[in-house]
Selenophosphate-dependent tRNA 2-selenouridine synthase
Amino acid sequence: MKDISVQELISSKEFIPVDVRAPIEHRDSAIPGSVNIPLFTDEERQEIGTLYKQSGEEAAKWRAMEIVSPKLPHLLGEIKDLKKSGAEPVIHCWRGGMRSRSVASFLEYAGIPALRLEGGYRAYREYILERIPQLLPEKAIVLHGMTGTGKTDILQALQEKGYPVVDLEKMANHRGSIFGMIGMGEAHNQKTFDALLFERLNEIKGSNYFIIEAESKRIGRAAQPEEMLKKKVNGIHYLVKSSIPKRVQRIYNEYVQPFLGEAWFEEEVREKVSKLIKRVNHDVSPSLAFALEEKNYKKLIEILLVHYYDPRYNHALLEYEGPFEDIDSDHPDVIEDIVKEIQKTFSDSTAV
């Protein structure tokens, strides 16, 4: 059995982290790219924990042995199959304790050399939190713009061209508008957000700038690091603009049209809009309710943009001093225009 450090794990593509914690732990906090091969199910973990509190360590360990013993051939076989695929499994649990040590020992007894992550997931998290501020490039290019102006499309296009984009909404699995959130599932927690942020910053390491959207500090369930917020405020600012009809059509095409006719979609829209009706001007509420009832989603989007999202965005924009360079996202050459601006500003570096 050999222990490797977090630095060694991250520095090599030959390793694949194998998380032997229960599924509920893996869902809450996982190393990106890791595989969950749990020693215990969620229910078994709870049973052993309860037994430990009520009857002590010896009874809990004995019960754990009873649960694990029949599983060992299948569990070790899954890890062995990973090795056959060319990857080098690195076993870990929460803090490099009994669970990962047990699995690594079983592998060694079966004649399979085992690697274990020193300090487990806890060491990984401590490492990335320390490294994130150090990995942030010097300058931020910040895309501002109201809901539906196509900022996400611009970021995706730039990333496809190899530019150092950091897509914060994707990392948080959360978008600002109610339609943007439909069908996305639960927003990522802070641990998942930090892990994905570290992974992307590590990928663009060496660039002297990064490109982000002007998100507020908290994005869904996660918060940006303070160092990133400071760079955002002092960054190079682009204001993405688009006409109301184009914005409505953009939101409709991406977030409404694919789900039309789905019962869950209509229920989710109704639930989310019903909450917003209380926050818009009373003069607008009847129109919003009528558009919802008639399933006139384009009209619904337009009302929300004009009377809810835009006023709030204008207020948020006051946090920045600028100057702002205007970008017309309705123009067919918008990506080429931004690329030219970036290359002009950073003449020594373009894509990464």
